[in-house]
Write a structure and sequence with these properties.
Number of helices: 0
Order of helices and strands: EEEEEEEEEEEEEEEEEEEEEEEEEEEEE
Strand order of the largest sheet: 1-2-29-28-27
Number of strands: 29
Radius of gyration: 19 Å
CATH class: Mainly Beta
Mean pLDDT: 88
CATH topology: Neuraminidase
Oligomer: single chain
Largest sheet: 5 strands, antiparallel
Helix content: under 10%
Number of domains: 1
CATH superfamily: Kelch-type beta propeller
């Protein structure tokens, strides 16, 4: 977790004014949208039987609508009906925010959705039992809170066994797994935790390479972890974690990378942006094939981007996702749409 009011990039930071639930956000300022078609293809369409299926092309498009404020390192999760919840995050001035937004990216609408009891950034979101859990994170120090929304109000529903920021939270098989992260003293946390309710946690395994700031994707009953950071150094390991907590290193990235985003589009995983080193943000994208465990170039984003939130829940047949906010390297309010066409 970046400390408040410091310039140390390798360690993460957020507090801000609250928002009343249900109040529409300010209208987005008009700006020209930009788009680019990546240089590689991904996925396939259902072609005529007996004939090769035409490949799909990755299209990267900066949409016109924006967030009401620039933010990075927030928790995110699906809210149903094509909507998503964005909670907490890092604001300008290295302050942790308690703001919560409900987003409909297809419609380009943003609604303010209350405030967290504990402002956090470098947090993680996971949906469990129809609710979004905002797990851990940090502000002036690392936090272990598990925050949920009941009706229109957010509450603290439980706590992790230890404070943890810079973590991954993923829902698999009716429970949430917590992976990696930082407790304020340990270089990176190895313990893999699991919970069926957000209140009671047990250790179910250990990461072979403990990291912070890894990119992650749920794939069936497993979670892929890409890169991350350890002792201030970006990593190349690709780790595969099963629902039972068994974890192993199965591949290596083309280069060290932390603070990236990952999303499944079609039958492959797209790895987006991130930091090759603590002082540099990249616009590069890579395709990862889970079957062959190989990487191929996937073009570039319109601008470098790290610590962004990924919106995806399968409502668009797994062919569309959005990157919301992030660092370019300064905080941004922009939204980028990724789609296979």
């Amino acid at each position: 977790m970046r400390r408040l009011l410091t310039l140390l990039v390798a360690l993460p930071a957020l507090a801000a004014s609250a928002c009343s639930g249900g109040t529409p956000a300010p209208a987005p300022s008009p700006s020209a949208a930009s788009s680019a078609t990546a240089g590689t293809t991904a996925g396939a369409t259902a072609g005529t039987p007996g004939q090769p299926r035409p490949p799909r092309h990755l299209v990267v498009h900066t949409v016109r609508w924006r967030l009401p404020y620039a933010v990075a390192r927030a928790a995110v999760g699906p809210a149903g009906d094509g909507r998503y919840t964005l909670a907490g995050g890092l604001l300008a001035g290295d302050s942790s925010t308690d703001r919560v937004l409900d987003l409909d990216p297809a419609a380009g609408t943003v609604i303010r959705a209350g405030r967290l009891p504990v402002p956090v950034h470098d947090t993680a979101g996971a949906r469990l039992g129809g609710q979004l859990l905002v797990v851990g994170g940090g502000n002036a120090s690392e936090q272990g809170t598990v925050q949920v929304r009941h009706g229109g109000a957010w509450t603290v529903a439980g706590h992790l066994p230890q404070p943890r920021s810079d973590l991954i939270a993923a829902t698999i098989g009716g429970r949430v797994l917590v992976l990696g992260g930082y407790d304020g003293t340990t270089t990176a946390m190895s313990a893999i935790l699991a919970s069926e309710d957000g209140r009671h946690w047990q250790q179910v395994g250990r990461l072979p390479l403990p990291v912070r700031y890894a990119a992650s994707v749920v794939d069936g009953r497993s979670v892929w972890l890409f890169g991350g950071e350890r002792a201030g150094v970006e990593q190349r390991a690709v780790q595969l974690v099963g629902a039972d907590g068994h974890a192993r290193v199965v591949a290596r990235l083309p280069h060290p990378l932390g603070h990236a985003a990952a999303v499944r589009l079609g039958d492959r995983i797209l790895l987006v942006g991130g930091r090759p080193s603590a002082d540099r943000v990249t616009a590069r994208m890579w395709w990862f094939d889970p079957s062959s465990r190989r990487f191929t170039p996937a073009g570039r984003l319109p601008r470098p981007l790290a610590d962004t939130a990924v919106l995806t829940d399968g409502l668009t047949d797994g062919l569309t996702a959005w990157l919301v906010g992030g660092e370019s390297p300064s905080l941004t309010d922009r939204v980028v749409r990724l789609s296979l066409r």
